[in-house]
Amino acid sequence: MRRKEPWPIALDIGTDSIKVLQLGEANGGLIARACGQWPFPVVAGDPEQRSEMTVSAVREILHRGDFRGRRSVSSLSGTDVDIRNVRLEKLSREETEKTLQWEARDRFPFDVVPDRLKYIDAGQVRSGTETRSEIIMLAVSEKSIADHLAILDAVGLEPEHIYPEPLAVFRMAKRSLRRQADQDTVSVILDLGARASRVVVARGRQVVFIKVIDIGGQAFDQAVAAQLNLDIAEAVELRARVMQEHAKFLGGNRKSDHEESEEARSDVDWTIRDAVRGKVEELAREIGLCLRYCSVTFRGLRPNTVLMAGGEVYDPAVTELLAENLGIACDVAQPLRGIDVSRVMPGMGRRTPMYEWAVAAGLAMRDEDIAPHRKEVKDDRRLSA
């Protein structure tokens, strides 16, 4: 009976925009049944004003779209979720949960209770002469969860699951990790957001590392503003225009951007590239430290590719500089690839990547795990996003 219910409504309240998406099944594949997006103004006001704008925007999206049901799956940002690592001796599940409650008291700057603390067992690691369990703890403060639930209540949505953004992005990426041969595949997903960038490392379908780095689109905007002596609104508009101009080169194949000749690029492109270089190199160093930690901790765990998602992927300066500095092949994720979007996004062609929908897509795909009868979706089937 559960499979006959509408899939939950995914709500992604991002830094620069709100995205609402509902998927479903049709003809053995996935379709987008309803969706909507609303951009925050460059200056979104104080938290109370931002909350009021969020409630108003989500209500409008739900009213205009053909959304069904009230079940929701939403996300909490990296600023709301605190992530810490700890190593424990191998314990039973019950003993692990009790021990983590004690550990949480010393490691988080707020009171932590069981329903606001979750953990991921990343696997066994060597610590000196001992073998221990690497545990990723994720906790949220009472205020953060209360504010989030208040928004859901105000717009009439019933919370079924609330995910940290990094795990939502990984849920989107792990759709391609279903074969037995993928169990030992080392994946690195880099979500380039407006406020921060999120790094998720996994072996097969098991997350082993999460890191939120406080460098994102806002830092790049500030770098452009300082370099060109612009106010922040002008810098945001300038970068947005350049990203839109390059979006046509960023379809399903990143090669088209590499093949674009240097002569075809404007002076503005190169000026922006020079302006953001310092921040991108700083971000690449932080990512490199994450990968080095994983390699040492998990004895030789090394990825061959970094999969990039998020709205900042539209900026070729950022993605190209990252690839140059990381020294690892970088690819881009298409969050809604293989999903029929023609019903809600008419005119969206195969070369429309929609990188910024990574979190929303991961949230919306939750019910895919309880639909084992669904046929495997091929990437080239139907109208790809």
| Biggest sheet character | 5 strands, mixed
Reading side by side through the largest sheet, how are the strands ordered? 3-2-1-4-8
The fold-level CATH name of the domain at 81-140 is Dna Ligase, domain 1
**Radius of gyration, rounded?**
21 Å
Counting DSSP E segments of at least 2 residues, the number of strands comes to 13
List the helices and strands and how they pair.
Elements: E1 9-13, E2 17-26, E3 29-39, H1 47-64, E4 71-76, E5 81-88, H2 93-107, E6 117-127, E7 130-140, H3 142-154, E8 158-164, H4 165-173, E9 186-192, E10 197-203, E11 206-213, H5 217-228, H6 232-247, H7 255-259, H8 267-297, E12 305-309, H9 316-326, E13 329-332, H10 358-364
Parallel strand pairs: 1-4, 4-8, 9-12, 12-13
Antiparallel strand pairs: 1-2, 2-3, 5-7, 6-7, 9-10, 10-11
Helix pairs in contact: 4-10, 5-6, 5-8, 8-9
